[in-house]
Model the fold of this input.
Amino acid sequence: MNHRAREVVIAGGGMVGASLALALAEAGRSVTVIEHQPAGGERAPSFDDRSTALSNASQRILAGLGLWDEIAAEVTPIKAIHVSERGRLGMTRIHAEDEGVPALGYTIINRVLGRILWARLKACEHVELLAPAQVVSVAGAQGASRVVCVQRADDMQELQARLVVAADGARSTVRDMLGVGSRSHDYGQTAIIANLLPRRAHQGWAWERFTPEGPMALLPMAGQRCGLVWTVAPTLAERLLAMDDEAFTAAFQQAFGHRLGRFSRLGARAAYPLALTRATAITAERAVILGAAANSLHPVAGQGFNLGLRDVAALAEVLADAGPGADPGDAALLARYAQWRRGDQLKVVAFTDGLVRGFAPTRFPMPALRSAGMLLFDVAPGAKALLARHSMGLAGRLPRLVRGLGLR
Ligand SMILES: Cc1cc2nc3c(=O)[nH]c(=O)nc-3n(C[C@H](O)[C@H](O)[C@H](O)COP(=O)(O)OP(=O)(O)OC[C@H]3O[C@@H](n4cnc5c(N)ncnc54)[C@H](O)[C@@H]3O)c2cc1C
Done:
């Protein structure tokens, strides 16, 4: 056993854990990231072939962390969104220029984002990386620190941490180790993701189609490819996954239609069973539950990472404002963070869940919410303003990074 004291220990170096480490380093904190998968991020579950739609708020946060120039070279701007509902006439189109923004959001392949985040982590002098390594237990707070046991190849380390962050995903075991419960609702749906090449150029259009089986979205990607997220019942998902490429492409073409011409060059398919999982608390003694470990959402509104990144920005701001000498696990600081973030989290969960279940609070205009659809919740400022007006006064204070200001 190797006893060493750390300031902040982050369990999980996925999209959210890696972003938090960089934000805390920017806020002047020293951080240890423990990631189950080998360093480099490419095999971490976050960093697979999915594409993520980054909201404008996420773009500003990543810019504030000095990451955007590198990310910008890899993203595809979403210039317009087309929303339709099967069995209903009409559709909605939302254009970036009408919203007064250069893009409604930006898509990036998760694997590429992982490569950028991890290259930065490796170069950051405030960040210590333990990977591959697994957090196997977290003991109760002992005075000024928590005890975190880390299993590496044939070596067990015991770290003292003033703050432990559980960023280990929806099935977080670290959350359990911290004594925080979770509630889960299985949607009985599976998301199939794949990349395809349409014959006609996508020209920055994203498409979302609500169908009785579940929503289908097609995101514009680099190289004129499109990223598909197709939500269906698990039995249909099994059938679609068992098909050869030609049969799957034909089934997709039939469901999507011919707006972009014929699709070809199908990439690898992957499936994600969908559930809403929420931690019963987002802080505990000397601990924060973050990202999918706190809120794992249906991808219909493209919000999981965007929400997690706003949490990252807020936590980094609270710790930066406390000053370099302040105890990062101080209960009052963590309470300030939890109170700040509760509203936004509730709002995003209610909105996403409402979209999936086909209902929304009656004072939300449903057609407008449907139009907001995947990507749009805070990707399109108009939709966000609309939701903010109709939601329960929970819009709240935006982190400095979202407002384009620095952490310090
Ligand atoms: C199909 C699909 C499409 C999506 N599209 C979007 C989108 O467009 N926009 C958006 O904002 N969000 C989207 N999301 C949501 C987004 O992918 C998640 O919110 C995000 O991946 C959560 O990141 P995370 O770092 O919290 O968790 P994870 O990605 O699960 O990462 C957790 C990390 O912790 C590590 N780990 C686990 N256990 C341990 C342990 N004991 N010790 C050490 N390390 C451990 C894992 O190896 C992993 O690297 C989508 C999700 C799906 C399924």
